[in-house]
Amino acid sequence: MNKARFLFFFVLFSLSQYAKAQSPAYIIDSLRVQLKQTKSEEGKVGIYSELTWFWAMVNLDSALSYGNQGLELAQKTGDQAKIAQAHSDLGNAYNQRGDFARAKNAYKTALNIRTSLADSAGMAGSKSNLASIHQRLFQTDSAMMYYVEALAYYEKTGNDRYVNFVKNNLAVLHEDLRNYPKALQLYAEVAEYREKNQMIPDLAMLYN
Question: pTM value?
Answer without folding.
Answer: 0.84
